[in-house]
Specification:
Elongation Factor Tu (Ef-tu), domain 3; single chain; SH3 type barrels; 6-stranded mixed sheet; mainly beta; elongated; 5% helix
């Protein structure tokens, strides 16, 4: 898509996304206006910030307003960005604290065996042998490895380290994650 070409309208696509698959993914949060030209700091919420560059179409706020980035550069811990049609601090102020989204279908492909968090959330957690213990409710990002928060139907939580010894298989079409329980993971161990 050329920088001046309008992106496809996500509302006009035939069909619908896969069940549980979001249409938009949050990639950042805008801060207060910076300078006199309508620039805004962007707290980056994506592992692929290099894709947020001039010419890219994004969607802002709860109404997913379609906007084209015209400037983007490193700033503090995030980026400093500007959008087409926003050239004053007063105009930029209307975007303050809004999330910035991209279309889910435009996300970069991952390597074999890697998944986006939104693909895993809600999957059923099944222990070797077939017993379902709950659904993946949350993913905690730690320094060493992610931790999966599994919520049972009764509301109890189990914390699973996302390591090869515990997470045996992810089957997105079946909607489940196969695990091996190691001693100490369940309270009754």
């Amino acid at each position: 898509m050329s920088p001046r070409q309008s992106p496809p309208d996500p509302q006009s696509r035939p069909g619908s996304p896969s069940p549980g698959e979001p249409v938009f993914l949050a990639v950042g949060r805008l801060g207060r206006p910076h300078g006199i030209h309508g620039d805004l700091p962007l707290e980056v919420l994506t592992d692929f910030p290099e894709r947020l560059k001039p010419g890219v179409w994004v969607f802002t706020g709860p109404d997913h307003r379609r906007m084209r980035m015209v400037r983007s550069r490193q700033h503090a811990a995030g980026l400093l960005v500007a959008f087409e049609g926003i050239s004053t601090p007063e105009q930029a102020a209307g975007l303050r604290n809004q999330l910035v989204f991209v279309l889910a279908e435009d996300r970069p492909p991952l390597d074999e065996g890697e998944y986006y968090h939104h693909q895993l959330l809600g999957l059923q957690i099944v222990v070797e042998g077939g017993e379902a213990i709950g659904r993946l409710a949350e993913i905690l990002e730690t320094g060493a490895n992610d931790v999966y928060v599994v919520r049972s139907p009764a509301g109890a939580e189990v914390l699973l380290p996302a390591i090869d010894e515990v997470i045996l298989d992810v089957d997105l079409p079946a909607g489940q994650i196969l695990i091996r329980l190691i001693p100490g993971l369940l309270s009754e161990d």
